[in-house]
Design a protein that fits this description.
Strands 1-2-3-4-5-6-7-9-10-11-12-13-14-15-16-17 form a 16-stranded antiparallel beta barrel. The two termini are 41 Å apart. The chain has one domain: Porin. Strand 11 and strand 12 form a beta hairpin. With 466 residues, the protein is mostly beta strands. The protein has seven helices and 17 strands.
Length: 466
């Protein structure tokens, strides 16, 4: 039965403009995350269009989030809300999610609390002696706890602790660090890998392709990883880590449902290597690299049939330059996944004992005058047909491809908020996703009774950080 709109509410498009008006009217009461206050700098110092890092922002991240101008007494906390409006070309019978209409929905996608920057904020000197302060101020943290406005629940989000220091390694200048985090690729300083890759903000009420590689988020917030990295002579970047699945009790305590998840059997190694360089003026930089991860997993945490094996290996590149008053960032990434479903096939979760999957993206971002942004991305996921692995796709195909178009406005990117909570930022965006294929289907009906174009999505969102 189709869901009816409440007659007491304005038409969805009227409510859309009311939402935009509310965001603009309230912008003076918002402010940016704690990093900008710690540095007493605007977001545009470390970012082009946030969260895209520029060269200075990448150095700040590799420095363990600890650089400071020592000019703030505010705690290292910040907040973020992401409301939005979603329209899909074809409505979803029965509602886009429990409690929502078939189409044209407003939702508070997420609301987050952050603790970011130096571990003890600006208070280390008051808590410890001079010698101890020098050590603990090299420990940084990025912790995000998020409320899901669709599922109506809290859970931990991206979390990372770092220790970083500059020195010499093998006779060369080196910026090195150690980290603990809960999301492989979260530690990466470029915008090419999934942890901080585009799209940064999508509708929580629209369908997304069901196929994805291990690094596309299969282990996000369910694992703990220990690793280290170094940047040699400002050119060569190396990163290696080991990840292990967290216990079900801890996951549930942190708001994560472990039901049906693939458990890493033992530890899973992650690796990353990149070469980066920039021109003498510092206005142009580029990076080329490789990355990967290997995991032996227990499907559904079931060890009765042994384990599966998954190997991800990828290539990536990023080019970033300043042209007049315009920032341009271009990225490409390609991940190939080899899959051996020895356990899943026995348990009925896969038709094949061996599969492959690959995921490719090419993205261009332009930001004019640090205020007006535009982005375009082409993406493609494809691989071996497997009816049991992709039961809701057309012919068991993982194929999905399409284009994402987005324009955005950042009215506070060059200025900031009130003096008592400075460095505000607001990002208003209009995004449209066009699918050529979705879960194997195109013009034909897929396993869910929908055409690929039915999933085309208009998302109008606000990203308010304070």
């Amino acid at each position: 039965m189709a869901t009816k709109h409440n007659a007491s509410l304005p038409h969805p498009w009227v409510r859309l403009w009311l939402l935009i008006g509310f965001v603009l009217a309230s912008r003076q009461a918002s402010a940016t995350p704690a990093f900008a206050r710690q540095m007493n700098l605007q977001c545009s110092t470390c970012h082009t269009e946030f969260p895209i890092l520029n060269d200075y922002g990448r150095y700040f991240k590799m420095g363990g989030y600890t650089m400071s101008t020592e000019q703030t007494d505010l705690p290292p906390v910040a907040f973020m809300v992401e409301p939005g409006f979603t329209h899909t070309q074809g409505g979803v019978q029965g509602g886009a999610a429990p409690g929502f209409h078939n189409n044209d929905n407003f939702a508070l996608g997420t609301a987050s609390i952050f603790y970011t920057g130096r571990l003890f904020g600006p208070y280390a000197h008051d808590l410890f002696g001079e010698a101890t302060t020098e050590i603990v101020n090299k420990i940084g943290v990025f912790y995000q706890h998020t409320y899901d406005g669709v599922a109506k629940q809290w859970s931990w989000d991206n979390a990372e602790f770092r220790y970083a220091d500059a020195g010499r390694l093998f006779g060369q200048e080196a910026l090195s660090g150690l980290y603990i985090n809960n999301n492989p690729t979260l530690q990466d300083p470029w915008q090419t890998l999934p942890g901080w890759g585009y799209p940064f903000n999508i509708s929580p009420l629209a369908a997304t392709p069901s196929a994805g590689t291990l690094l596309d988020g299969a282990l996000t917030h369910t694992v703990i990883g220990f690793g280290g990295y170094t940047l040699l002579n400002s050119h060569w970047y190396f990163d290696a880590a080991l990840y292990h699945t967290l216990g079900t009790g801890f996951q549930q305590f942190m708001g994560v449902d472990p039901t049906g998840e693939a458990q890493v059997d033992g530890v899973s190694p992650y690796w990353r290597m990149a070469y980066t360089s920039k021109d003498e003026a510092g206005s142009t930089s580029w990076e080329v690299g490789t990355f990967g991860m290997y995991a032996q997993t227990l499907p559904g945490r079931d060890s009765s049939a042994g384990h599966d094996s998954i190997l991800d290996a990828g290539l990536d590149a990023q080019y970033q330059t300043l042209i007049g008053g315009n920032d341009l960032t271009a990225t490409v990434a390609w991940t190939h996944e080899s899959e051996w479903w020895n356990a899943s096939q026995f348990l009925g979760g896969s038709s094949n004992v061996e599969d492959t999957l690959w995921h490719a993206t090419a993205t261009v971002h332009v930001l004019h005058d640090k205020t007006y942004g535009a982005a375009i991305q082409y993406f493609m996921i494809d691989g071996t047909h497997d009816a049991a692995l992709y039961p809701n796709s057309t012919g068991g195909s993982p194929l999905s491809d399409g284009v994402i178009l987005e324009v955005s406005w950042l009215p506070l990117n060059k200025s900031g908020g009130p003096a008592f909570w400075p460095h505000s930022n607001v990002k208003l965006s209009v995004q449209y996703i066009i699918y050529n294929h979705f879960d194997g289907g195109r013009s034909n009906i897929d396993g869910m009774g929908r055409r690929a174009t039915d999933n085309n999505t208009l998302f109008i969102g606000a990203w308010i950080a304070f």
